[in-house]
Design a protein that fits this description.
The complex is a heterodimer of chains A (309) and B (103). Chain A is α/β, with parallel strands linked by helices and 309 residues long. Chain A contains 7 helices and 17 strands. In chain B, the strands form 2 sheets. Chain B has a 5-stranded mixed beta sheet. A two-stranded antiparallel ribbon of chain B has the order 4-6. The N and C termini of chain B lie far apart (32 Å). Classes of the chains: A alpha/beta (309), B alpha+beta (103).
Chain lengths: 309, 103
């Protein structure tokens, strides 16, 4: 087994201001598959090609943003080990019982230095049918419904102490840092991209005065052409774009940033590159952040820095 | 379709906005030379304004992280969630004000 420890992003629980309007957007514009609703009223979705029960959970609230971002770990012994490692490191953890979220096992919840809530879990029910496991078709009708990403891919979160996050994620959770943005003058890290796999990022953080902020949740598409198609679908549905279609210098992914009906930014993303933990991190001087964000235009869009939920 | 005059008093900007558009749509279209954008969803708060005069219709929920019920009652709202029903005079409170100031 070469993939161990924290294996991948599992789910994002997102706060929305109007549940019905949001469900309509996530189901028919973003094109996720609704998989359930719980007693609290939360609505669960997965991408068409994902196997686990959910990767996006919507909760009606009076303010937008993210409740928590969760990672799936290899198995239950790994969950126990990481919980104990977190405690030994000085992080207070809390156990959320199995079943609190639909189809999801016990979760270990903790707050990270930027003020975000992160959760780890080992078990989630697989809802993939036999038709996808034996002699499967390469895609399904759901792959054509709305933007229809193949998976929820990563998120970017904003908060003050990203140095503390870097230490926690690399020293305790087994992540490594493929790329970072550094202030040219004093060497302070302004943004960091962290991977627990060989994706160029599974989570990213940027320095920001207020804690606990969501910049975006990203959804993976299989081609640049599908990113352009996502832009068409947004425009056809009067969804406001923020940036793109363009290509990031950082991670080299092709991208569109846009907003869900509550103003939570989402990304439709393709490409990027595969990387390995032994690689030297790529450094972007802050003066080149414009190119890092929007390589063709080399433009530092103000909204990238200031619009968060 | 009716159109109304929107006067942004503290930025010395004036533009026309249709009854179907939000005041923020109008502001974004008018902001020549200034790249401004927000979430357009009532979530991020950068377009918070104070309406000094003129009537408007609220077109959706605004995050309570940025607009309290007292704000709502006092006309301190998010420009992306109101549509004009009259000529409006307003001041900008949110972060987009800083962008204008640096123009």
């Amino acid at each position: 087994m070469t993939i161990s420890g924290v294996t991948r992003p599992g789910h994002a629980q997102i706060r929305v201001l109007d549940l019905d309007e949001s469900v309509e957007f996530y189901r028919n514009v973003l094109g996720l598959v609704e998989t359930g609703r719980d007693k609290q009223g939360r609505v669960y979705f997965k991408a068409w090609d994902e196997r686990d029960h959910n990767s996006v959970v919507l909760r009606q609230a009076d303010q937008a943003g993210i409740d928590h971002f969760a990672f799936k770990v290899l198995d239950k012994p790994t969950l126990e080990r990481l919980d104990s490692d977190l405690r030994a490191y000085g992080v207070k953890t809390e156990r959320i019982p199995a079943g609190e979220m639909l189809a999801t096992g016990e979760r270990v919840r903790f707050e990270i230095p930027t003020g975000h809530i992160i959760e780890l879990y080992a078990e989630k029910e697989q809802v993939v049918g036999q038709d996808r496991l034996v002699n499967p078709t390469p895609w399904t009708p759901q792959a054509e419904h709305g933007i229809a990403p193949v998976r929820m891919d990563h998120c970017l979160l904003y908060g003050p102490d990203i140095d503390g996050n870097l230490k926690l994620f690399t020293e305790v959770l087994g992540f490594y840092m493929p790329e970072y943005v550094e202030n040219d003058e004093d060497g302070t890290k302004i943004a960091i991209w962290l991977s627990c796999s060989n994706k160029s990022h599974d989570i990213a953080f940027a320095r920001y005065p207020e804690p606990g902020k969501l910049h975006h949740v990203s959804y993976f598409l299989e081609s640049w052409e599908k990113v352009l198609r996502a832009g068409d679908i947004c425009s056809m549905n009067n969804i406001k774009l923020d940036i793109g279609p363009t290509r990031h210098g950082i991670t080299r992914g092709t991208t569109i940033y846009a907003f869900d009906p509550s103003g939570n930014r989402f990304e439709t993303y393709s490409g990027g590159y595969q990387c390995y933990p032994d690689w030297t991190p790529i450094r972007w001087p802050l003066s080149e952040l414009g190119a890092g964000l929007d390589y063709p235009q080399r433009k530092l869009h103000e909204s990238f820095l200031s619009v968060v939920t | 379709m009716r159109h109304f005059k929107i006067n942004v008093s503290d930025l010395d900007v004036e533009f026309t906005c249709s009854e179907q558009d939000t005041v923020f749509d109008g502001l974004v279209r008018t902001s020549s030379g200034v790249i401004i954008n927000g979430c357009h969803g009532g979530g991020c708060g950068v377009c918070k304004i104070e309406v000094l005069s003129g009537s408007y219709e609220t077109s959706g929920t605004m995050s309570c992280a940025h607009v309290s019920s007292e704000d709502l009652a006092q006309g301190r709202v998010l420009a992306c969630k109101i549509r004009p029903r009259d000529d409006i005079v307003l001041n900008v409170i949110g972060k987009i004000k800083k962008l204008y100031a640096s123009k």
